[in-house]
Amino acid sequence: MSKAATKAGPTAGSKPARARAGRPHAAWALPGVLFFAFFAIVPMALAFYLSFTEWDGLGDPRPVGLDNWSRLLDDPRLTQSLWLTVLLTVCSWLFQTVVSLLLGVWAAGKQRNRAVLSAIFFVPLLLSSTAVAVLFYALLDPNFGIIQKDTLGSSSGAFLAIVFVGGWQFMPLHTLIYQGGARQIPAVLYQAAAIDGAGRYRQFFSITLPQLRHTITTSSVLIVVGSLTYFETVLILTKGGPGTDTAILPYLMYEAGFKSYDFGYASAIASFLVVAATGLSLLLVRLTGFGSMRSTREGM
Amino acid sequence: MPRPARTRKEPAAGSPAPAARRRHWTRRPNPVAGTGALIWLVVVLIPVYAMISASLTRQDQSLDGNPLKPPSDPTLENYNTVLDSGFGHLLANTAIVAVAVVGLVLVLAVPLAYVAVRTANRWSGAAFRLFLLGVAIPAQAVVVPLYLLIAKLGLYDTLPAVILPTAAFAMPVSVLILTGTLRDISEELYEAMALDGASSLRMLFQLVIPLAKGGISTVVIYSALQAWNGFLFPLIFTQSDGPRVLTLGLFNYVSQFGVNVPALLASVVLSGIPIFAVYLVARRSLVSGLMGVGGK
Fold first, then answer.
1. Closest to B169 (Cβ–Cβ): which among A22, A40, A249?
2. Residues of chain B positioned with their CB less than 8 A from the CB of A105
3. I want to staple A194 with a disulfide (CB 3.0 to 4.6 A). Which of A152, B7, B53, B261 is the partner?
4. What is the ipTM of this complex?
5. A126 vs A107: CA distance, rounded Å
């Protein structure tokens, strides 16, 4: 590393050296890339390989061709699970985006009470997802809980509970993101709109929303990717039940692998997730313009 | 659109003071939004209140009536029950994991972001895109093969089995946050340091790191939260009491305490106290760090 580091120094002042100023050797990125590749990219490829094998967690995986895949495509639980995963993502996105956008824009104001309220809103984020799931597991208990009904025992109740609990926990994060975004909107825009006679609601739809589009993208991507991490919420609150009515894809994968020791089949489900995830991240690159390697601060 | 007349006259009456100009759109009270915020406040506070009040209720009284009733005879015995069941050990493990994850992420991601921003060639571009794609890889998708890797490395049921994958999965977002920050350091500063004969390494420590403090603290917060929140990796890569972390401990309490709901809730309260303490001390940087995530 130090060899590469000395490169830029000695001939400073001459044109080419100045152009190279502070340009470290690409090898500096290597440790990070290798580390990430080993623990994330290689396993992703390995998941595809394992989906063509039979493996019970002991001994070595045994190739079985397309068996897992043909089984998977015939499995009615997969269709249900895919549908559930999409539905959960859409419902979570709607719930969290609407509420946190409104709260965030409101909290971007400067009055004292807003600061105090924002501080209280933050509290759920201080608990881990597991703690939040355990909390609601207790509070939704039919004998002990707030609602003296078996909420988690009915399909729709269990599903709505997962949407609500996820929202309850992550809303503070998205509210903060929107608050930060709203504060960066130049006041001149609102002044100009006011001069033109635009009222509060008109200003919200014509200025606030369009100006927040990058923030909305970032927050939405986080919500969509994050809704897959509702795994612990599902595991603790409903165990995928009643029946398999809240068994989202990650949960289905967990059951196949770490409950039934059917790792080949679990890998086939995981491969499904990888495809969905890759699609999502390509979308992310498109929507955020991160790929253009420019600071989004410019042009604000 | 109810009051255009008044606002339209304002500019004619001389330009308003700069402070007032900045707050222009937020100055007026907004009763609808204010009411909405109050409703959400109630939604946030009821579970928190119910949790604390129930954790102070004697177990034999906990089943009559709902948890919204304040405890008639408050007791700390539930907290004793939890503390006696090895809570300190869980907390210590979680702290070790968090510190190790934050350290690993910083050591690996800072030079990586520096290269991605400053060295424009094929390789650094490819490295950057790798992390861009990595943002959306859910840990669930790779947990089975990771289980195989961890087992082959002989790390199963150890703390490194939790630390290494957690750090790896915190990398993509950290790299994105850091590259966002580093792009705002101006070319002139690098050139000025180059004129002084500074090496890339010296620039990293004397220019890049000091100027990227905001991004770095966001990354610290983000990766520490990942470690604090981690559930899947500990669930699958550890088994015994030795390397057990807090989240897994809470999960086990669900079956261990069974119907002892007050003790269960006391454990949730206890698990929140350390990070609540951090919040009280570092509220400003915690909040502004997370706020910055969307600003980019």
1. A40
2. 33
3. B7
4. 0.83
5. 19
How far is Cα A60 from Cα B175, in angstroms, rounded to an integer?
36
- Asked if B265 lies within 8 A of A42 by C-beta distance, the reply is no
Amino acid A42 reads: V
Residue A15: CB atoms within 10 A of its CB come to 8
Q: For residue A187, what pLDDT band results from cuts at 50, 70 and 90?
A: confident
3-state secondary structure labels for all residues of chain A: CHHHHHCCCCCECEHHHHHCCCCCCHHHHHHHHHHHHHHHHHHHHHHHHHCCEECCCCCCCEECCCHHHHHHHHCHHHHHHHHHHHHHHHHHHHHHHHHHHHHHHHHCCCCHHHHHHHHHHCHHHHCCHHHHHHHHHHHCCCCCCCCCCCHHHCHHHHHHHHHHHHHHHHHHHHHHHHHHHHHCCCHHHHHHHHHCCCCHHHHHHHHHHHHCHHHHHHHHHHHHHHHHHHHHHHHHHCCCCCCCCCCCHHHHHHHHHHHCCCHHHHHHHHHHHHHHHHHHHHHHHHHHCHHHCCCCCCCC
| DSSP conformation class of B16 | P
Phi, psi of B154, deg, nearest 5: 75, 25
Phi/psi of residue A238, nearest 5 degrees: -125, -10
Question: Which region, left, alpha or beta, applies to residue B14 given φ > 0 means left and ψ of -120 to 50 means alpha?
Answer: left
* A239 interaction partners in chain B (CB closer than 8 Å): none
Preferred mutation among B45, B144, B279 to probe A, highest tally of A CBs within 10 A: B144
Q: What is the pLDDT of residues B11-42, one digit of tens each?
A: 434 444 444 444 444 456 677 788 888 899 99
Asked whether the beta carbons of residue B295 and residue A29 sit closer than 8 angstroms, the reply is: no
